């Protein structure tokens, strides 16, 4: 395997990881920001007020995006397995 091939495979894998993680994390970060602004404006310092909405949004993102996330990961894995003969030979 040449170094260029390894770098291409690693680059694709890292991009896929970033894409999958961002689909779950970005909505949670946005809700956390909105709740933080709300807490700062109202001077409410309750820990569960910031945790519970982020948890719910993360679970909803997994629930609605789970099929797409799984399909994307399966497509990458199939592409990786199908490229084995060209990488080795």
Question: How does this model look, in words?
Answer:
- This protein has one domain (3-88).
- The protein contains three helices and no strands.
- Helix 1 (3-42) packs antiparallel against helix 2.
- It has helices at residues 3-42, 47-82, 84-88.
- With 89 residues, the protein is mainly α.
Properties at a glance:
89 residues, mainly alpha, 91% helix
Summed up:
It is found in: Cell membrane; Bacterial flagellum basal body. This protein is mainly α and 89 residues long.
Query: Radius of gyration in whole Å, from Cα?
Result: 19 Å
H/E topology pattern: HHH
Q: What would you call the quaternary organization? A: single chain
Low-confidence stretches: none
Structural class: mainly alpha
Strand content: under 5%
For the report, how would you describe the main beta sheet?
none
- The number of helical segments is 3
**How many angstroms separate the termini?**
9 Å
Q: Helical proportion?
A: over 70%
Number of self-contained structural domains: 1
**Strand tally:** 0
From the spread of the alpha carbons, the general shape counts as elongated
Q: Average pLDDT, to the nearest integer? A: 90
């Amino acid at each position: 395997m040449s170094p260029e091939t390894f770098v291409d495979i690693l680059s694709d894998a890292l991009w896929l990881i970033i894409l999958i993680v961002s689909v779950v994390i970005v909505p949670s970060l946005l809700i956390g920001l909105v709740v933080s602004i709300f807490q700062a404006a109202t001077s409410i310092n309750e820990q569960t007020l910031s945790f519970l909405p982020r948890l719910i949004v993360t679970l909803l993102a997994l629930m609605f995006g789970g099929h797409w996330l799984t399909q994307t990961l399966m497509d990458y894995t199939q592409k990786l397995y199908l490229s084995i003969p060209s990488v080795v030979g």
